[in-house]
Design brief:
This protein is α/β, with parallel strands linked by helices. About 40% of the residues lie in helices and about 15% in strands. The two termini are about 20 Å apart.
Length: about 325
């Protein structure tokens, strides 16, 4: 993602001078339905039975393509694979020169979805969270077969990817918190990764939830994770936060992307799920997206982003800010 930011250097300079830019990628939360019930889910109180209607999904894709968006990330919110038209939407994007990725719990990976991911997808991240069937069932509150099915799907998509010599990156994500911690957790991760063969492994801490560990506990867990996963290739252990509420930089880079909810709400940031409507700039099915994006409301929302709240999540834009500041040799500052 940092290379994507660098490639948009001219747009970054426009932001610096107070000129709004168009997003280059979109996070789609096309459904707030989920087939799992993870402990401490940030979306738990928001999950109901709504899925973006198919015609609205394609209308939104067309709108984003028209303003220059090239990359689409299907995530949640709810579980994106529960949208019955997902594979069709992905092919629609690929046929028009776009790119897409998927973040999923991995339970509902149909043959059609696996094929389109292998043929055209950029990355597939499966959020396992737990590293054993017992912890998985307890944390996600699922029937026994979910664990077996997810591992089966991971193996199969990697098999298809390898057979097709596809460039699809397959990654696994695990969580660390009060119910998911300790030596056995990391040993299980190590063995799973060796067995399944993903390209990337991310270990993150549960944040802003009752199951979040103290800073001292996170430091201890990070040390254990580093030790027991030492031989695991391409691992990313992000248990200890780099910034606190007092040190987190002010965010201003979010216009390089946007978030579209199942009902057409457009947010200035993909981490707005625990801030209510504070980061919502409008609804693209009620007001034309071009009008929303270039509105004074958008600037108002950007200027109202609170670093203390950003510090509560592992925001990818923190790394983007650091890359920009390095390129400017420390002279970036807060520009809007």
């Amino acid at each position: 993602m940092l290379t994507n930011i660098v490639s948009r250097w001219e747009d970054i300079k426009k932001l610096k001078s107070g000129e709004m830019i168009w997003p280059s990628f979109v996070d789609f939360h096309g459904t707030n339905v989920c087939n799992q019930h993870c402990t401490g889910c940030a979306y738990d109180s928001l999950l109901h039975t709504q899925i973006m209607p198919e015609h609205r999904q394609f209308e939104a894709i067309d709108t984003f393509l028209e303003v220059g968006v090239k990359a689409f990330d299907f995530a949640g919110g709810g579980e994106p694979t529960l949208a019955p038209y997902l594979a069709k939407a992905m092919r629609y994007i690929a046929d028009r020169g776009g790119h897409f990725a998927l973040i999923t719990n991995g339970v509902k990976m149909s043959d059609e979805l696996m094929d389109v991911m292998v043929e055209h997808g950029t990355y597939l991240r499966v959020s396992l969270e737990a590293s054993s069937p017992e912890d998985y069932k307890a944390y996600k509150k699922t029937p026994d077969w979910h664990w077996t099915k997810v591992l089966e799907n991971i193996r199969e998509v990697i098999r298809r990817r390898n057979a097709a010599n596809s460039q699809l990156e397959v990654s696994l994500k695990f969580l660390v918190g009060k119910p998911l911690r300790g030596r056995k957790h990391y040993e299980n991760m190590r063995d799973l990764v060796a067995d399944l063969g993903p390209d990337r492994v991310t270990v993150k801490a549960i944040r802003h939830e009752p199951d979040e560990l103290t800073l001292r506990e996170k430091v201890n867990e990070a040390s254990m994770a580093d030790f027991w996963l030492a031989a695991t290739p391409n691992k990313h252990v992000k248990i200890v936060p780099k910034y606190t509420a007092d040190t987190h930089p002010q965010c201003w880079l979010t216009p390089v992307h946007t978030l579209c909810e199942w009902d057409g709400k457009i947010s200035a940031c993909c981490y707005g799920y625990y801030r209510g409507d504070a980061l919502v700039i409008g609804n693209m099915f009620e007001t034309p997206f071009r009008e929303l994006w270039m509105s004074s409301k958008h600037w108002e929302v950007l200027r109202g982003i609170k670093p203390a709240q950003c510090a509560e999540v592992d925001c990818k834009f923190t790394g983007h800010h650091e890359a920009v500041e390095q390129m400017e040799r420390g002279g970036a500052g807060f520009w809007i």
